[in-house]
Write a structure and sequence with these properties.
37% of the residues lie in helices and 20% in strands. By secondary structure, it is an alpha+beta fold. The protein has one domain. The strands form two sheets. Strands 1-2 form a two-stranded antiparallel ribbon. Strands 3-4 form a two-stranded parallel sheet. A hairpin with a 2-residue loop joins strand 1 and strand 2. The radius of gyration is 15 Å and the shape is elongated.
Length: 86
């Protein structure tokens, strides 16, 4: 999540920033490609993970930069990945 003086940017504006950065870098290195792997924090619970998955699928409407989703946090102290399956 990217913030400005007004607070968090909406997803479309955030993705536009990533695209502008990629375009600027590609001007110098034409073979450069930037991809996004979205992450959700397991420690924040199933609601957080679901909101991040929903945002990931929403992002696919705006860009082809998103290529994956990862649930992160120390495995020994957070719910196992299969508890998020439903």
């Amino acid at each position: 999540m990217i913030f400005d003086d007004e607070g968090p940017l909406n997803l479309e504006r955030e993705l536009a920033i990533f695209k502008r950065v990629e375009d600027k870098l590609r001007a110098k290195a034409p073979l450069f490609r930037m991809k996004i792997v979205a992450c959700g924090l397991k420690i924040l619970g199933k609601g957080h993970i679901q909101s991040q998955i929903d945002a990931y699928f929403e992002a696919l409407k705006f860009t082809d930069m998103c290529i994956g989703f990862d649930m992160v946090n120390e495995e020994d102290f957070t719910p196992e990945i299969d508890s998020f399956l439903p």
